[in-house]
Design a protein that fits this description.
Layout lengths: L11 H7 L6 H26 L13 H25 L10 H11 L2 H13 L5 E8 L5 E8 L9 E8 L6 H4 L3 H10 L3 H9 L1
Antiparallel strand pairs: 1-2, 1-3
Length: 203
């Protein structure tokens, strides 16, 4: 089955108002309908090409099959992280609406404020093409971790399920905030929809 662009919890028109604190109205369209959709479309293209690529020529330098496999993980991760990114947004940042996840964060990080400080630093420190993630480490007793990922797939933890995904590729914020990455990350965190995040945490 072909991959499909996952619908956001709000329409394109609603996004321009709901996400206004985080990105420009134009970016709500470009980021979703161009960048995000691009990963989905390219992943489908790669999956088709893999069916006929010559596996016998695979090598570490360059072969069609080898390069397709490398780009498969990049585009798949880009699709998945953007699915989570849009689902995260559109709230008021009030963690009290997610009592179970709030308790888990407080247990792991000491307090919600300590988590926020750590998540901000994790996201701010990612390269210009990267992500700050809150993940559930399913191979370590469901420990909560803040993880820094370059591109979509370098630095990820095996067995970790992302539940908060802050996109810090420059296209996510430059049209509204220019080089003010700090302001964008703060606005992202203030716009989190913790009820939806808690559903992902429990799912």
């Amino acid at each position: 089955m072909a991959y499909e662009l996952k619908k956001r919890p709000y329409s394109d028109d609603e996004a321009k108002k709901i996400l206004a604190p985080v990105m420009s109205p134009e970016s709500t369209d470009w980021h979703y309908n161009k960048h995000h959709k691009g990963y989905v479309d390219k992943l489908n293209e790669i999956e088709e090409k893999l069916k006929t690529a010559d596996k016998s020529k695979a090598n570490a330098n360059y072969a069609e099959f080898s390069e397709l496999k490398r780009q498969e993980s990049f585009n798949h991760a880009g699709m998945v992280l953007h699915d989570i990114y849009w689902d995260n947004l559109g709230g008021d940042g009030d963690i009290s609406k997610a009592s179970d996840l709030k308790a888990a964060i407080e247990k792991e990080f000491g307090s919600f404020e300590a988590w926020k400080e750590d998540f901000y630093a994790t996201s701010f420190g990612a390269k210009n093409s990267g992500w700050g993630l809150l993940v559930v480490d399913t191979l370590a007793g469901n420990k909560l971790r803040n993880v820094q990922v370059d591109f979509h797939n370098f630095g990820a933890f095996w067995g970790a399920k992302p539940i908060v995904a802050c996109d810090v590729f420059e296209h996510a914020y430059y049209h509204k905030d220019g080089p003010n990455r700090a302001g964008y990350i703060k606005n992202f965190m203030d716009n989190l929809h913790w009820e939806r995040i808690e559903k992902l945490f429990k799912g």
